[in-house]
Amino acid sequence: MEERGNISIHTENIFPIIKKFLYSDHEIFLRELVSNAVDATQKMKRLSSIGEYKGDLGELKVTVKVDKDAKTITISDNGIGMTAEEIKKYINQIAFSGATEFVERYKDASADKDQIIGQFGLGFYSAFMVAERVEIVTKSYQEGAAPARWECDGSTEFTITTAERAERGTDVILHIAQDSEEFLEVARIRTILDKYCKFLPVPVEFEGDTINNPNPIWTKQPSELTDEDYKNFYKELYPFSEAPLFWIHLNVDYPFNLTGILYFPKLKNDFEIQRNKIQLYSRQVFITDEVKDVVPEFLMLLHGVIDSPDIPLNVSRSFLQADSNVKKINTYITKKVADKLNDIFKKDRPTFETNWEDINVFIKYGMLSDDKFYEKAKDFVLVQNTEGKYYTLEEYKEFTQANQTDKNGQLVMLYTTDADKQHAFVEAAQNRSYDVLKLDSIIDSHFIGMLEQKLEKTSLKRVDSETIGKLIEKDEAKDSVLNDTEKEDLKKIYEAAINNQNMQVEVAPMAPDDAPVIITLPEFMRRMKDMSKTGGGGMMFMGNMPDTYNVTINANHSINQRILKAKDDNKERIARQAFDLALLSQNMLSGSALTAFVKRSVDLIGKE
Ligand SMILES: Nc1ncnc2c1ncn2[C@@H]1O[C@H](COP(=O)(O)OP(=O)(O)OP(=O)(O)O)[C@@H](O)[C@H]1O
């Protein structure tokens, strides 16, 4: 028997188009053909289980072979096979309609072309991206079925002839085109199989090895699995990563189908590098590791796998974002992650605290970017004080309320971004029994802004943004030892000694044992500048402005009383010395000013 025919399509020769535009993704031909072969074996299994097939199933498997001399790649399976009639129906018509649809869509100028190329499963016809001729030799499982051979050279013409084949199943033989000979390299094929076929549900053999794990743990029930299983699977996915902190097993079948395991990696601060670590599968076939639209942005810091046949992969990204299944998946995953964190927090707070350094960026990022997540996380998000103790927001409020509420009823939470550099201020706050939080990671400036918005009657101030008396303003007015004229004189002396327009001098009564001079950068100024640095809020111009500091002179400090009494030529010298000491305590003294300070200090010591 030989039959020649014409594949009926509406579009003129589509192969040049497929070849040209799928260039970057040529390797997916193997994913498509191997998953077809796997499907054929799965169908066999099903037929057997429902009693449609009564014979011996044998060991179901798929084999990939490369023959460099013959320039062929052969994908073989012992699945259901096809009769000549089925080839005509499934290959000539169905498979082709997919390819035709692709070209139709591609012609649509408004479509997002990169996305179509990246996500369109071209099925069987993707073989022509790398092959100049494709043969199918197949025998159906049905009793007495005649084996058939189909051949096509990439034009719209095909032939079907009878073939020799004893066993049930299908061989797809690709005669590799000259420009695709890279795919005749064993190493290349192994890499591709490893990427796309690692977890296919039937053993896939290549060069004598089974290259896949047909029963990955996400397909099992959590009750069947131990911690070791989860950790080993993580190793299998990311051989070079540190062990994960904990994980979530996802398992839904209504209203959409989704399984998977998400791991919390050790994050630290290098979270940029760790993206694209979640792999998306559809029935165990790897699809992509760009899960941007399927998983909420902040969850992309997690690692692991998601498997869902309900995610439409053959459509453009804009469609994906609007897809209601994708939205539900997003919400579901967010909720699961929040629940898991809450669970650990409730059941094992010490572990939660130990891991806080690794997970805080992730949780804060989530709270900032997703209101629903904020609502759940606000009860378990932690803040840590300079003593290393952890509090929830509620606990911290209770802890500080009595002592740190100002005269307007506003609770003022104090924080430091660098407990070393801001040591003098931290100590001054502690001397008043104020508590100071450590908020020093990159995300904390945004986190602080969010807390102020969300928490009622609460503001956050960096310890060095005001003098201690003004950080948390209380009603108690401090008496000043100096009268107004003396204060005015003192101010003038300091202004002359400092001689810098960006230092706003003010004389105010403080405790005699507070520092004589205190330099602060107002909270508002600093936040504006921080924002301009990270490029937010149209504050770019602020970045170029010099810092304007407040210099507060402690009217009640004995040094300042001495300055007023000192000889004229000594007044400025002592004032400058006191000012330099304040600069020094904040690491702000350098260059010629530092040299002058050292000289002056040596002189002063020498005098006594
Ligand atoms: N190895 C095979 N054994 C048996 N039938 C096959 C085999 N490969 C392909 N087929 C038949 O040809 C049809 C078309 O295959 P093709 O890969 O183009 O599309 P598909 O698998 O239905 O969808 P997809 O675009 O997701 O791959 C299949 O549905 C199947 O019936």
UniProtKB/TrEMBL annotation:
Start and end residues of each Histidine kinase/HSP90-like ATPase domain: 25-166
PROSITE patterns: HSP90
Superkingdom: Bacteria
InterPro entries associated with the record: HATPase_C_sf (IPR036890), HATPase_dom (IPR003594), Heat_shock_protein_90_CS (IPR019805), HSP90_C (IPR037196), Hsp90_fam (IPR001404), Hsp90_N (IPR020575), Ribosomal_Su5_D2-typ_SF (IPR020568)
Residues reported in the UniProt entry to bind ATP: E32, N36, D77, M82, S97, G98, Q119, F120, G121, L122, G123, F124, T170, R317
Family the UniProt entry places it in: Belongs to the heat shock protein 90 family.
Protein name, entry field: Chaperone protein HtpG
